[in-house]
């Protein structure tokens, strides 16, 4: 197992060092270099490997171990190769070094989600090298553009190359971190994820000379008030089914369980939680609004007449785009009619838990983490699972992390500073993928 861990660590380091930074523009990402790496790594195993590149540099790789029974269920192991931008000033180390320090691999993407992309590749190759002959097909997908809504990755593949990537069951990020409870370790499985309602707000004013600001209609000033209102807006808590099942399975003290399931008590409880946990609990139970990008003005001595503001809005299960639009107008109040609103509605998705894949994950993880049990959980960000769920797949977010990676660290490192993952977690995840494939598909 030591050699496997070293192999997974080395592959993760190389993926980090490729710096496939996706800033949302078509020309960014450069994921083809990681496709080259993974294709080279998988070479010689007799695998059927295909490459897809819908835009220059935006490559994805698909590898298959074909099943012997066309009626047997198929499984897709999916990891993305792109990462979000990073400001090195906030890091203790070079964010693209891939250095191993005290048993942790450092770098952008170490947790989100190159650790899974690497460990799935190693498991896939080991299965192939070992002569794995499943009844159902096993597919590995290293996909581009996950960090920008999957336009040139999972979305494009499902729409244009469905037969190459579709599977009955899909495993991707994240979940699988160990959460201790009074009744043993609980391992969250991301069975649902919030929707994205990314929105552009256009605020207009009247231009004038910067030396005469009195009584001007300054678009930046109006935009500042728009940002303030959105930031301070507090929509009602929502206690949905996935959240209720999670809380009831966590064996919290009675007063915490009661607070977590009470929309009125939840707000007070949030103030007492650690930072990472409070952010996650809040996101699991609220429609969230985050102003993230603003552009406006043309010159220091010109009163600006136009500002464009981007807001990351995440919707709850069962919530429509119309619902989110109404909440946004509520937040804006009497400024709503002064703002042009353009939104991308990508609704929440969910998979059931009464499935053979859930049973497989329970058996395998129960053997690997003594006394553990699975609990359903809500992904508060977005993953490529949504495209496969809409195409008919059962999609879960899961891996397996060691106790060295605390939940608090895990929660705050996503898109944050000093992202890193321990090598023990890499070993656990690689072992998990092999065992799941054998349990489900043989």
Structure description:
- The structure is a single chain.
- By secondary structure, the protein is an alpha+beta fold.
- It has 2 domains: 2-181 and 349-441, Zn peptidases (Aminopeptidase), CATH 3.40.630; 194-346, 2-Layer Sandwich (Alpha-Beta Plaits), CATH 3.30.70.
- Helices cover 36% and strands 23% of the residues.
- The protein is built from 15 helices and 19 strands.
- The protein has helices at residues 2-17, 32-42, 114-129, 154-160, 162-165, 219-232, 241-249, 254-260, 263-270, 275-285, 321-332, 356-368, 385-391, 407-413, 423-441, and strands spanning 48-52, 60-65, 75-80, 100-101, 104-106, 138-143, 169-172, 179-181, 184-193, 195-204, 208-209, 288-296, 302-303, 306-315, 339-346, 349-350, 373-379, 394-397, 420-422.
- Strands 1-2-6-3-7-18 form a 6-stranded mixed sheet, with helices on both faces.
- A hairpin with a 7-residue loop joins β1 and β2 (60-65).
- α1 (2-17) crosses α3 (114-129) and α1 packs across α15.
- The radius of gyration is 23 Å and the shape is globular.
- The two termini are 22 Å apart.
- The mean pLDDT is 95.
Compile the SSE list and pairings.
Layout: H1 2-17, H2 32-42, E1 48-52, E2 60-65, E3 75-80, E4 100-101, E5 104-106, H3 114-129, E6 138-143, H4 154-160, H5 162-165, E7 169-172, E8 179-181, E9 184-193, E10 195-204, E11 208-209, H6 219-232, H7 241-249, H8 254-260, H9 263-270, H10 275-285, E12 288-296, E13 302-303, E14 306-315, H11 321-332, E15 339-346, E16 349-350, H12 356-368, E17 373-379, H13 385-391, E18 394-397, H14 407-413, E19 420-422, H15 423-441
Parallel strand pairs: 3-6, 3-7, 7-18, 9-17
Antiparallel strand pairs: 1-2, 2-6, 4-5, 5-19, 8-9, 9-16, 10-14, 10-15, 11-13, 12-14
């Amino acid at each position: 197992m030591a050699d496997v861990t070293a192999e997974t660590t080395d592959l993760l380091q190389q993926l980090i060092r490729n710096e496939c930074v996706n800033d949302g523009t078509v020309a960014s990402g450069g994921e083809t270099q990681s496709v080259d790496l993974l294709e080279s790594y998988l070479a010689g195993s007799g695998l059927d490997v295909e490459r897809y590149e819908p835009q220059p540099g935006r490559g994805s790789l698909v590898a298959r171990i074909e099943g012997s029974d066309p009626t047997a269920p198929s499984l897709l192991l999916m990891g993305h190769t792109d990462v979000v931008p990073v400001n090195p000033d906030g890091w203790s180390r070079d964010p693209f070094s891939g250095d191993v320090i005290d048993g942790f691999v450092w770098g952008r993407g170490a947790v989100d989600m190159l650790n899974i992309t690497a460990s799935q590749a190693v498991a896939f190759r080991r299965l192939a090298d070992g002569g794995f002959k499943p009844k159902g097909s096993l597919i590995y997908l290293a996909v581009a553009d996950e960090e920008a809504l999957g336009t040139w990755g999972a979305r494009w593949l499902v729409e244009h190359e469905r037969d190459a990537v579709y599977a009955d069951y899909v495993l991707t990020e994240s979940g699988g971190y160990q959460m201790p409870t009074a009744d043993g370790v609980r391992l969250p499985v991301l069975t649902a994820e919030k929707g994205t309602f990314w929105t552009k707000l256009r605020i207009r004013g009247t231009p004038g000379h910067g030396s005469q600001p009195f009584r001007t209609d300054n678009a930046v000033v109006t935009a500042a008030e728009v940002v303030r209102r959105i930031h301070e807006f507090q929509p009602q808590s929502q206690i949905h089914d996935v959240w209720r099942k999670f809380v009831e399975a966590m064996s919290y003290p009675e007063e915490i369980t009661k607070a977590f399931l009470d929309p009125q008590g939840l707000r007070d409880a949030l103030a007492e939680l650690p930072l990472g946990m409070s952010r996650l609990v809040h996101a699991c139970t609220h429609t969230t609004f985050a102003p993230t990008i603003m552009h406006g003005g043309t010159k220091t001595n010109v009163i600006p007449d136009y500002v464009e503001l981007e807001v990351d809005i995440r919707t709850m299960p069962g919530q429509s785009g119309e619902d989110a639009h109404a909440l946004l107008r509520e937040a804006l109040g009497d400024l709503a009619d002064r703002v042009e609103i353009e939104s991308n509605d990508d609704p929440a998705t969910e998979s059931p838990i009464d499935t053979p894949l859930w049973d497989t994950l329970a058996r395998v993880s129960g053997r690997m983490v003594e006394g553990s049990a699975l609990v359903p959980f809500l992904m508060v960000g977005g993953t490529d699972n949504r495209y496969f769920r809409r195409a008919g797949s059962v999609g879960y977010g899961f891996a397996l992390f060691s106790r060295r990676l605390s939940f608090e660290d895990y929660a705050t490192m996503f898109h944050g500073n000093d992202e890193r993952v321990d090598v023990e977690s890499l070993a656990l995840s690689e072992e998990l993928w092999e065992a799941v494939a054998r349990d489900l598909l043989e």
